[in-house]
């Protein structure tokens, strides 16, 4: 039951194995390496061998470990990997070796039993996002050397091509070299290239096997063994201790002075077919009372648009929300005619949206920066058409998908007053740690948006754990067994405390960006308010825990944000003061282990980590009060379980 309450699934979590060779350490998880460290400092985020299908889906292999001899000065292990796919089976033998001198190697020999189509099969290496700005030396497959830096702003295209080796200097002065080798059926050079994964809100730069400039998918031939290897060498160089996020174990959490920023208003996403909203979902939206509804409508289909507009107007008037209308514009329609017709439909419904943003449907799919984009009227022409048709609305721009598409198709600021996009934490990986790490990328995304569109308002959302749309394949992934699955619309963790902790971390990461609007979750459906049937009492429908967090954030809208100091690495916090003089502190444990926080000041509050009926959405949960610490006047100790969220007042 604890797994269901936390993650909404009983799918087992992979057990991590610590590998240690003197100052070199890493974690073996699900057949890949994570948190590769030297004297405790992360030098690489991950190395993994992956198979990706024609829709960029990432099936998990079955892993069987072999017995290996353990060298005296390091570690060595081997294991078998097997992917059973609809077309056939891919088998591989993996070997990992590490020594105390700072050398780590990961080698895989893979053989398919039948020809298999793949978009990518082989190694990916992740450098953490905090290397942005660090020196980077690239050795190419032809022997050429380039001295550069990891980009500070997010690169819309690949950072480096034709890679054989990478050497970077960390902020501490450590020098880290990666040698990359691959046998590929379609590329005798065995190239690697690097992309800036911050585009997709992954907190990393990813170096991957094969080139996206070559044709894909490509075929793994039957019966041919293909070898790949990554070798990492760490050199001390001019290394010095790294500051990191380390906080002394006994340091108290403190709320500082106002930052000069106000909490953003909180919106709620309204997908298509809102007329299908159920009675419990309707009651939950009424209890939440979002400040905004960010609602989608398809222009051009008069009957469907009228039905959607009527449902939006009814919902907005009932909960007293302003409306941002996100308009999907089908191809082969004139932008001005679409805008004029939709404006007439809004007038017929006696409805004036406070904000309008239009996006051609063809831009719901992603294209490489240098690729041929589909024929369509420009984003600027759509903005101009809707500005004329909706003179009393705030006109916005941007994408209804992710920052990736926004970065690759940069709309000019002409005719718009705000820019917007969403994010999704499930594009490349779906394990708990990777999803939580996506929060690290959000300040990087915001800095890039502000640099490209200075002076424009900035709106984020709707933000959900599950993937609303898949710009990179035919569709999102079905998830009937409620597993942790990349690119799935229905993520089971939305049902548990995990989503409440992740959303708290999300708000804490972006509140400093002075947003015009932060839109969270959906009004109905699998990313909406209600526990799914197998978790809920059918006699008493209940809201998922993240909706309690959303209600707290909604009430905080417009309040003065305060700095929060002293949080340990796995904790996130957000503080604000109300007009009545109350100081509030929202805290979440994002980690897998319990925490004990020491708090300065006199606090009392409630636990937000439990489902509740819609009628109780704004009533306090179980009381939370820090225990006094003996010998430390004015300091209390607060235990937080994994993924627990509390709100405190002083």
Distance between the termini: 34 Å
Mean pLDDT level? 94
Number of strands: 36
Low-pLDDT runs of 5+ residues are: none
Roughly what fraction of the amino acids lie in strands?
35-45%
Please compute the radius of gyration using only Cα atoms.
Answer: 25 Å
**Approximate helicity band:** 10-25%
**Structure classification:** alpha+beta
Number of helices: 10
How would you sum up the global shape? globular
Q: Main β-sheet: number of strands, strand sense, barrel status?
A: 16 strands, antiparallel
Q: What characteristics describe this protein?
A:
single chain; 650 residues; alpha+beta; 16-stranded antiparallel beta sheet; 8-stranded parallel barrel; 10 helices; 36 strands; globular
Concise synopsis of the structure shown:
By secondary structure, the protein is α+β, with helices and mostly antiparallel strands.
Detailed description of the structure:
By secondary structure, the protein is an alpha+beta fold. The protein is built from 10 helices and 36 strands. 17% of the residues lie in helices and 37% in strands. The strands form 5 sheets. The chain has a 16-stranded antiparallel sheet that branches. Strands 20-21-22-23-24-25-26-27 form an 8-stranded parallel barrel. Strands 19-28-29-30-36-32-33 form a 7-stranded antiparallel sheet, with helices on one face. Helix 9 (497-510) runs parallel beside helix 10. The longest helix has 18 residues, at 302-319. It is globular. The two termini are 34 Å apart.
């Amino acid at each position: 039951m604890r797994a269901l309450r936390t993650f909404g699934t009983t799918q087992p979590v992979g057990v991590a194995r610590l590998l240690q060779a003197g100052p070199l350490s890493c974690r073996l998880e699900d057949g890949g390496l994570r948190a590769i460290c030297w004297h405790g400092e992360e030098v690489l985020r991950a190395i993994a061998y992956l198979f990706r299908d024609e829709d960029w889906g990432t099936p998990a292999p079955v892993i069987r470990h072999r017995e290996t001899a353990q060298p005296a000065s390091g570690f060595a292990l081997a294991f078998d990997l097997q992917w059973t796919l609809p077309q056939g089976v891919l088998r591989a033998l993996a070997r990992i070796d590490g020594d105390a001198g700072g050398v780590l190697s990961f080698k895989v020999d893979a053989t398919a039993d039948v020809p298999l189509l793949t978009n990518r099969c082989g190694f990916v290496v992740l450098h953490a996002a905090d290397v942005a700005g660090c020196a980077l030396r690239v050795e190419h497959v032809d022997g050429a050397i380039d001295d550069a830096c990891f980009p500070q702003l997010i690169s819309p295209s690949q950072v480096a091509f034709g890679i054989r080796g990478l050497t970077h200097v960390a902020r501490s002065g450590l020098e880290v070299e990666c040698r990359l080798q691959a046998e590929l059926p379609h590329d005798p050079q065995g190239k690697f290239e690097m992309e800036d994964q911050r585009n997709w809100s992954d907190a990393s730069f990813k170096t991957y096997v094969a080139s996206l400039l070559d044709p894909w998918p490509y075929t793994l031939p039957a019966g041919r063994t293909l070898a790949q290897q990554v070798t990492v060498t760490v050199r001390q160089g001019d290394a010095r201790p790294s500051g990191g996020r380390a906080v002394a174990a006994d340091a108290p959490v403190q709320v500082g002075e106002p930052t000069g920023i106000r909490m953003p208003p909180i919106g709620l996403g309204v997908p298509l077919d809102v007329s299908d909203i159920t009675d419990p979902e309707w009651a939950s939206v009424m209890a939440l009372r979002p400040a905004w509804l960010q609602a989608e409508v398809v222009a051009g289909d008069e009957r469907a648009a009228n039905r959607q507009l009527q449902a939006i107007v009814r919902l907005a008037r009932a909960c007293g929300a302003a409306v941002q209308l996100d308009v999907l514009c089908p191809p082969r329609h004139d932008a001005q005619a679409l805008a004029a017709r939709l404006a007439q439909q809004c007038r017929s419904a006696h409805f004036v949206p406070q904000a309008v943003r239009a996006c051609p449907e063809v831009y719901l799919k992603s294209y490489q920066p240098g690729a041929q984009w589909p024929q369509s009227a420009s984003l600027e022409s759509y903005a101009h058409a809707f500005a004329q048709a909706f003179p009393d609305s705030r006109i916005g721009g941007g994408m209804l998908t992710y920052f990736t598409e926004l970065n690759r198709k940069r709309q000019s600021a002409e005719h718009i007053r705000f820019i917007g996009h969403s994010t999704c934490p499930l594009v490349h990986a779906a394990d708990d740690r990777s999803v939580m790490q996506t929060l690290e990328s959000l300040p990087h995304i915001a800095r890039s948006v502000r640099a490209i569109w200075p002076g424009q308002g900035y709106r984020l959302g709707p933000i959900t754990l599950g993937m609303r749309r898949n710009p990179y394949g035919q569709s999102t992934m079905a998830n009937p067994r409620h597993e942790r699955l990349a690119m799935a619309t229905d993520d089971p963790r939305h049902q548990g405390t995990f989503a409440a902790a992740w959303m708290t971390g999300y708000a804490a990461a972006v509140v400093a960006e002075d947003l015009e609007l932060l839109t969270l979750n959906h009004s109905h459906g699998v990313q909406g308010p209600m526990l799914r049937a197998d978790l809920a009492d059918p006699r008493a429908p209940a809201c998922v825990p993240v909706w309690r967090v959303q209600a707290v954030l909604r009430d905080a809208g417009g309040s003065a944000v305060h700095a929060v100091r002293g949080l340990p690495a796995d904790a996130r916090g957000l503080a604000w003061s109300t007009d009545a003089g109350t100081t509030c502190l929202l805290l979440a444990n994002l980690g897998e282990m319990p925490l004990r926080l020491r708090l300065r000041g006199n606090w009392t509050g409630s636990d937000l980590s439990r489902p509740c009926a819609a009628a109780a959405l704004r009533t306090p949960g179980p009381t939370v009060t820090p225990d006094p610490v003996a010998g430390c006047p004015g300091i209390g100790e607060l235990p937080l379980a994994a993924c627990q969220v509390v709100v405190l007042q002083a």
